[in-house]
Known about the structure:
A: alpha/beta, Rossmann fold, six-stranded mixed sheet, 32 helices, extended, B: alpha+beta, Jelly Rolls, 2 domains, four-stranded antiparallel sheet, 6 helices, 8 strands
Amino acid sequence: MKEQFVMEKNKIPVVKRSLFSWIFSGNIKLQVLLVFIILIMIVARVLPLEMQKRIVNEAINLRKMDLLFLYCGIYLASVIVASVLKFLVNIIQTLISQRVLAQIRKELYHHILTLPLNFFRKTQAGMVVSSLITELPSSGNFAGMAFAVPLSNILTLLAFAGYLIWLNPLLALVSLSIYPIVMLFIPFLQKRANTANKKRVDTTRKLSSRIGETISGIHEVHVNGAYHIENSKYDKLVNQLLKTRIVWTLYSQGIKVTNNFFNNLSPFLIFILGGYLAMKGQLELGALVAFLSAQEKLYNPWKEMIEFYQIYQDASIRYNKTMEAFDLMPEHEIEPKDRDPYELEGSLEIKDLMFETDSGIRLLDKINFSMKPGEHMALVGFSGSGKSTLAQCIGQLYKYTDGHVLMGSKEVSDLTKKDIIHNIGFVSQAPFIFTGTIEENLLYSCLAKTDENGVMPNLDDIIGVLQQTGVFVDVLGFGLNAILVYDQDTNLVSDIIRVRKNFQNDFGEALSDYVEFFDENKYLYRSSIAENIIFGSPNHTSFAENNLSQNEYFRKFLNTAELFRPLLSLGMDLSKQTVDILGNMPAEAVFFDQSPIAPDELEEHKDLVNRLKTKKLHQLSTKDQDRLLNLALRFNPGKHKMIALPQILETLILEGRALFIEKISTDDPNAITFYQMAHYIYSQSILNNIFFGKITTTHPKAQEKINQSIVHLLIEEDLLETIIEIGLKFHVGSQGDRLSGGQRQKLAIARVFLKKPKILIMDEATSALDNKSQTRIQNLIETRWKGKNTLISVVHRLDIIKKFDKIAVMKAGKIGEIGTYQELISKKGMLYELEFGKK
Amino acid sequence: MNSNSGKNETCPSCEFQDNLDILRQINFFSHLPLEALKVIAYLCTRETFKKGEYLFHQNEDDGLAFYIISGKAGLLHKDKDGEHLIRNYPEGEFVGGLTLLGPLHRLFSLQSTTDLTCLILTREKFAKALEQFPDLMPKILKVVVDIVRAWEERFLGDYSASCDACKHNIGVSLV
């Protein structure tokens, strides 16, 4: 976050920077080091040529062995040094390009997050993702190469050329004369290739939209038997693409061929001219050898330059396109430059407020009202009347186009974001919950507001807010559903065993409808087959549910108990059915919560189901059998509804359980802790441990009822706070998908309440709550907030507005009437109409 | 209000298959392709309610649709004079399909009048399933339009020209 603010204050915005500006940005030392290394490298590259000449001319001609060793030694050393340096250059280049890439990515992302909400309405998330992930690497690559590649290649070219001229000016000029010619040809060809390439992209797009259309209209095609019509439309485009691709490939290849041709032409010129000169005695044989190899070595740097040119073209197009897409400025400063954020008074004064969209539609029209600190106002009206827009303009989420919003006499549009978050709490209509724990989400607003030295709320504050907003019972539920780690929390464990006994006495009977107790003589429909067989929690990992299928002892036991084959067959049914239902579903919790196959195993099972089409169970590989057995052992008929548990298997498993307990008690008595009242079951949740059984309902209201009856017990045993702390660590899943709509909304309200803002704006913030939670929050607002904190509440349900100080009724972007509930109802105006309908 | 055990003695097939058969009989779902119905049937859960328990409450937005598998329930409406029974729903009724489509506050409450078992689908699950089958929305909209039209037709059938108060209530769909 710090980096972002630095950017806001001092630098040119990232979207205005040129591609070239990144080359040295933060990398000056590396770039200088690079130049230094390159210079040495070039010397090391030229040196072997001179050695070559001397080896032929001096050592071999004069038959001097010592000179041969010396020159060869220098040759070898230069080659090694050049290679090592080249490697170093690559390392530094990589370092620079990756650092530049990371820097552009960070700065662009930081910039994007501050863009106005309006921008995100029109922008697909996928576009932002692909911009940041796939479009930017070429810019990083370019920045890494931008200095080193041209420098080293041009210098190498110059050095070789210089050396050639030094050897023989005439021969050098003739052999170098090919490059100007190549430089004439290549841009010409490149231009043609680019045109063909653009055409190729267009045709490919057309082709894919044609395929899309035909596939979505496949029903119609079949009905009409219109295969040949669709085929001919498709074939026409494919033929077009065929031609374009050929042209494009020919031009691209043409560049390479031209380049190669001229480079190969060069030795021919050297041979014919050099041979002539050598015969005339005007050129030493060694020099001719050196000439030939120097000329050959010109090819690489030349090729690299051409490649660099192409990378530059590509990177600059992508970079400019990307930056163009985000070339917008935040509507408000993020934080004040040279002052602390304001602590404003909670009064509001709205004067002639207007809000128009870009296309000129007036959503708010001359709104006027004022509120004293601590006053509460409800905003009601027909949908589309501008209630939410008004709330969002006051909360600085949209920039109003005209008029004033004065908050504690400061104009809201002039305030920075930081001033706003210090004084306003905003609960949106559809609040967003982020991946992480309950606690992280609860502290989200406070953390955003607080500086490094700021004080964060403590556990008492948190528990207070949890209770006020009614999310307490939910968090308690998460805590109760947690599984404790073996041998940690030993105090808690002994407490829970004590609670278990009291629970059985106090509530055992009342809640028996909701619980399946662990009973050695009954099949447990809420437990997996593995749990049903071992009837306890494993003390060795080899007896853990996921390892059982590979546990030799257990497999042998399954055979003895005549369970192996039936389980394999059950696993097969389970795999087939699950793949059939979920085969094309994405890896989201909602689809896989009731599935025995985890999302990351789905692909393997798809393959397995394919193999099962041609193979019988006994023909499967051991690995596949393991997989099916593993799946069967996980099967929990209370949860996995895609197949039923055959009665015969149920009986076999119950008999197997008795046999297993008997066998393992003699063979390995410490392997399993059986379900017994005196033992904590580490494989089960705290709640199941208290129950000594498993809950049989998933209905949230039933769960709430159960949790409430347990609260008593936990208070008596002084365990409530501990369980809540565990519950706060609950992971809410990706985008909070493990929470219900109501839980999400309560959590969102709690996180804003925790911030204790002076002005609270709630935009239909309680719409997903049940009546009880709704009433609870309403009471809280009336007793604790009224007179102290200002509240604007956009309300859909009219049954909760009676106690507000003021009610503003909106219609078509205007405030139609404003007053207390009684005033407005007796006036028989718009509120009356909203509540009792048109008469 | 507890869901029934994992095993189903009365039915040799499994719960998923039963759910699928039920959904195919419900007008709201019957036009959907089998691929989508399978996923929806899989996402449905079963709950049992004891006599007198509420399936949903007036003014709440619980986002649930119910199919009554066995038992009966009464539809209640509360106004300033108290709670009135509107009508009874026997087994085989599908209640609350519209809540699947978007946030809605209940205008009624539903209370079981016997012990009752039902199939439940939540709005969140339904929406997630729809995301995977984007071309379903037009089909569902068509069903909704049909339902609204059928209501109005029923109103018109019940309406007698001499009743002034009734006049006020017709013309909702304006088709």
